[in-house]
Amino acid sequence: MKINLPVPSSVLFFSLLAVLLFCQNLYAKEDGLVGRWTFDKSANAAEDSSGKNNSGKAGAADVQNNPACVPEQRTDWSGPVTKMWIDKAAKQKAAEGSIDVLFLGDSITQLWMKDDKWPNGQKVWDKNYKPLKAVNFGVAADRTDHLLWRIGKGKMIEGLTPKVCVLLIGVNNLLGWQGRQGGDTPENLAAAIGLILDNLKKQMPDTKILLLGIFPALEPDAPVRDKILKTNKLIAAQADFKKVYYLDIGNKFLPPDGKIDKEIIRDGVHLSEKGYETWAENMNPYLLDLLNNDGRGEMWDTLKSK
Description:
The protein is α/β, with parallel strands linked by helices. The protein contains 12 helices and 5 strands. Strand 4, helix 10 (223-236) and strand 5 form a beta-alpha-beta unit. The chain is globular, with a radius of gyration of 21 Å.
């Protein structure tokens, strides 16, 4: 015999409340991180029947169901690292009067700085970027959702007005780092990087953003290689070469056969000191043009046509 037990009204009330709170947290409208990606109908104007946006940006549906776009606060060791970068930047700004270049990213960016455990690019940084009044806000193991939290509720870049922001993010998303099983799709990652760009433009309206293509990772037959290529193609379309400039130097880290050279990419993902030298050598002409020539150099013409 089937017995239907009445559900207490209090249970129904708190269940509904939990759903509402979840939805509020998911869209996080108050953070300004979703913005037109979720709610602006014009963002969908170029979408075709597949739901993808032909302008190079993902449509609203991609963001709403996209974990790479939902700001997530990490509760591990990264908190003190973030505070250390913020405090260091404040001291540097007080001493030098300004911060002209800001680096944002994950461990590949963080390891520009000295680390007792791993090879790093500190010497290369001191030679190339210390004179440019640069600061490094890279945090190891970060995905786009972590960076979205840092530059949003985390207030990591609050009050900063650099001339140029160098952004390299996404390999941890594609590799499925920190429990993201299977990794994010190139489409989802590109949408998340678009959100980061929108947030940076909103908070630092006078800053030019140098968006770097994701560097090569693992061997040529690894699935992530193809995902990196697809992601880079999508994010390249987000550059207007007025506010956001796109630069892909990934092939500079690889020999002609495309295999990983461990003297440059030491473990298949992270760079050696020689790798940081390669990064600086190939990025510097473009970075210096943004700093000193407002991005008007002829070197950008070839990139605009791609």
